[in-house]
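Subject: for your reference before the review

Hello V.,

The reviewers asked for a structural picture of the protein, and I figured it would be easier to keep everything in one thread rather than splitting it across files. Below is the amino acid sequence we used in the manuscript, unchanged from the supplementary table.
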Amino acid sequence: MKWQRVPLGPLQTNAYILSNEKKECVIFDPGGDGQRLVTILRSQNLTPIAILLTHAHFDHIGSVDDVLSHWDVPLYIHEKEKNWLSDPSLNGSTYFMPGHGISVKASPTLLSKEGEFIVGSFTFDLFHTPGHSPGSVSFYNKEVEVVFSGDALFNGSIGRTDLPGGNHDQLLSSIHNKLLTLPEDTLVLSGHGPETTIEAEMDHNPFLNGY
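And here is what came back from the structure prediction:
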């Protein structure tokens, strides 16, 4: 199994493709440039089996419908952000992309419980990690030793909490009580910027000191 990062959309949000030996894959947070993402998948002979969303901000969902127009696969998101997909005022596109509001047409499958989450041959530990947004989740894959953290935890930083539904104390609690309990050599694959490790953020992230 292997992963690859594909920055997409106006904010170059990190989409991730996690694929197995059978050329099946799951896609995390396809944020824009839908045709480019489709071209990458086809050029590598990859077949998506699901789209997994860490949260529903506009820069993480912009090419969901593009992907689903080529592959009829389930779309997963936390139940607290079900309505955000189709509401530009909730997903932020009304404010950040005036005149280009994003509304996802697909009906999602809702995530509600933490714990083991299986889609096809891919197994994750699902963590509810709110704070950046109410329905933010993180997906930990033990086999590859990576966690897809969305906009909760970054290399040297944490997610912003000044958007609707954001909560700084809740985000710090999510990071410390969920993400930092993972093995220290776990790779953190964030929604923006380069990867990092749990150990590096425990040791050097200035936003986590003194919590």
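For the response letter, the relevant points are probably these. The CA atoms of residues 155 and 193 lie 7 Å apart. Residues 2-204 form a domain with the Metallo-beta-lactamase; Chain A fold (CATH 3.60.15.10).

Happy to draft the paragraph if you're swamped.

O.
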